[in-house]
Amino acid sequence: MRKKTHLILAVFVSCMVLCSGGNVAAQRPESTTIVENGLSSSIPDFSGNWRVINPGPDEEIKATADTDRGFSCGGLKGPNGGPLMRCQIPVDKLMPYLHPRALAWIQFASTSDEALSPRYDCAAASLPTVFGDPYITSFTRNSDKVIIHYEQSNWNREVWMDGRKHPPATELFYHGHSIGWYEGDELVIDSANFTFDPDGMDDQSHLPTSVRKHMVERYKKTGPDRMTLTITLEDSLFLRRPFTWDHKYKRAAANDQPVGIWECDVETSHSELEVMAPDKYEGR
Amino acid sequence: MKILFCSLGLFAGVSLLMTEPIQAHHSIPAFWDEAKSIEISGTVKQMKIVNPHSELRVEVTTADGSKETWVGVAGLATQMIKAGWTNDTLKAGTAIKVEGAPPKKIGAKGILVRKITLPDGRVLTSGKID
Lengths: 284, 130
Hints:
heterodimer, B: 130 residues
């Protein structure tokens, strides 16, 4: 009888896990600080402007863009056969995590994927691509949310800190839905409810993500003007298992402010594509 | 005269600021042949400081007298704006010489803009583009 009960329980738990859609949300710990009325002075403060320090020989960044450096593209080639030199995710380390489905995507879609990238239709850089972009990232916080402003595409990301949960899976968003909390000196952000995105992992190597994408970011100050972001990405459609990597940030100089405008022109973007990349229907 | 000084001042400011590289957002070797350099001469058709990459359209007169439009890909608009560029920095009709890398796409009339020379010899560099 007890054995039968255990079996029923096991089946029930399995069903619950499967019915969750595979996106296992990060568990908000019981000790989480949920600030409901005003701000607690004890919570870590990431306010201000930050610039990513991409991998390179040193940790210095210029006052302007720092596009010389980036993660290894793992030997991937561009649509014209030339090597990809700088990726927003460490593709060399990511390779063993890629599901054969993702490898097939790379093999068969690489010719036309530049032309099919949403960025040429003026879509804002995906999460996590924007984390490594050579633009300013700014944090502000209030009682119920942290607002992260990305100079890239000049958009505000709302991270809900009021204890709410993600919406049902019927509600999908290009940049997903983000909730957050503090764990000690870390700001933890859990994002889900993403749409399918052909550049969902990286808009340089054009690695995609699906609606099963789930991402956890952990921001931690490592000094008065330094911060580390640790990202864990899971997507059981394209990854064998969750992949974790880091970005380092440095506080932007006082005179290094977001320009505050982002004028993207689809026609111009497409004319750029016409002179440098194969047509979107090539290679099929 | 005032306009002339303003224009000269603008160009001087931009030229000075352009010594800091202006950078785009691609893996250059994947799309452009950096080992080669090409040069086109013509007149500015349009300069657009837009994201993600600014665009310089140049009308070139070929040997047989026909006109063709070349597309120059320049730097990140955000950085160019901070460096002083506007859509009026290069006005339509201005004669220019553009140096840069050719695209790997065969036959494409494109150039990765490195250096723009004005008729009086002043130089605007779009800088290193990655």
